[in-house]
């Protein structure tokens, strides 16, 4: 769905998938050790929340250049989530199956964000 066909950021598939990622990360981090409450759990949650938040904020700027800038921030946050999930896996907080599933979701979301960026850049040039 393009910016022109969406009435609000909540109509964007990329935002909806980002929200799904937040839900999944919050459920996952509930099982992390209590000692990680203000460490890895908090960082992972913040990075995940950053994805749909930056998509929404970019949309709200109502300017293509700003929207692209915030989509790039969301893309960076996806890399941050991936790194933190991998750390959690290495520490034994996340099962291999769950880690693989989440990495696949992150890859799909990254591709969607990059595709959206390219689409916006092509339209604005």
Which CATH class applies here?
A: Mainly Alpha
Strand content: under 5%
CATH architecture level-2 label: Up-down Bundle
In helices, the fraction of residues equals over 70%
Rg, Å, rounded: 15 Å
The succession of helices and strands, N to C, reads HHHH
Q: If helices are DSSP runs of H or I spanning 4 or more residues, what is the number of helices?
A: 4
Gist?
The chain has about 120 residues and is mainly alpha-helical. Helices cover about 75% and strands about 0% of the residues.
What does this entry look like structurally?
- By secondary structure, the chain is an all-alpha fold.
- The chain is 75% helix and 0% strand.
- The chain is built from 4 helices and no strands.
- It has helices spanning 13-29, 40-60, 64-90, 96-124.
- Helix 1 (13-29) packs antiparallel against helix 4 and helix 3 runs antiparallel to helix 4 (96-124).
- It is elongated and about 45 Å long.
Notable features of this structure?
mainly alpha; single chain
How would the blueprint of this fold be written?
Layout: H1 13-29, H2 40-60, H3 64-90, H4 96-124
Helix pairs in contact: 1-2, 1-4, 2-3, 3-4
């Amino acid at each position: 769905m393009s910016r022109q066909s969406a009435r609000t950021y909540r109509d964007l598939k990329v935002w909806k998938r980002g929200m799904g990622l937040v839900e999944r990360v919050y459920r996952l981090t509930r099982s992390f050790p209590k000692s990680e409450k203000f460490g890895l759990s908090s960082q992972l949650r913040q990075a995940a929340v950053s994805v749909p938040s930056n998509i929404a904020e970019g949309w709200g700027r109502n300017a293509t250049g700003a929207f692209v800038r915030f989509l790039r921030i969301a893309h960076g946050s996806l890399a941050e989530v991936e790194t933190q999930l991998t750390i959690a896996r290495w520490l034994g907080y996340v099962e291999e199956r769950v880690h693989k599933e989440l990495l696949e979701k992150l890859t799909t979301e990254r591709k969607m964000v990059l595709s959206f960026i390219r689409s916006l850049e092509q339209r604005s040039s």
